[in-house]
User: Fold this.
Amino acid sequence: MNAKIETPDMMIYAMASEIEDFNTVLHGVSSPLPILAMSVARNTHAPDMAYISGAEGVDPELNRIYPSSFDARLNRNAVAYFGLHEAFDLAQRGELHLMYLGAAQVDRYGNTNLSVIGDIERPKVQLPGGAASAFLMPITPKCVIWVTRHTNRVFVEEVDFVTGQGYNHREEEYKKNEIVVISNLGVMNFKNPERVMQIQHYHPGHSVDEIKENTGFDIGVAADVSETSAPGPEVIKLINEMDPDGVRGSEFH
Assistant:
């Protein structure tokens, strides 16, 4: 494809690609990109996934998104209603396969921070908090962290506060679970013996060197690093139809 892919659409497609058919997938609050990613997956390669909305609907008929990820219209014709408190039991039983989480900071071991910037006793910035992150992140088989600004202020050597546990804060039994970080520059994972972040893919128009320059620690590079697969015109059309108001762009302002 010769046309330039907009950054939100590139991220949405990369996020959708992490879903496998028959997965049970959850998104939370303030999640326009995850909602669109789940919708792309359900309409393409994962038609039999179970979609659990942060608005508490299961497998709703979703034809567009709204500014609020908890808009009641996102539950239209849902097959069931599923309180978010029930996600804890679902995950504990091993029946939640993938969830999307945001982060204000993420470090080399995959720890995330949505709590405070600065010292916990005298924070510079009070963040909204991680809600379910502390409980769900270690026990969910795959957590996809999405970050719309890949800078060395976000990708840091050590987070100011551990909201969601990375590999250096996990019990051994949970180290098998996967963390994937998708930013506006590329896709990172932890598939190495040390369980530290490495570059797996760089988005079209970007490079390994650019990712390194914008990361606040010495990030590794996977042996099979490659360019991120770009979405085709059918996927772009679907995203545009589902987001006619450009809500997805709000995460990049």
The mean pLDDT is 94. The chain has one domain: 7-252. The domain at 7-252 is CATH 3.40.1080.10 (Glutaconate Coenzyme A-transferase). The radius of gyration is 17 Å.
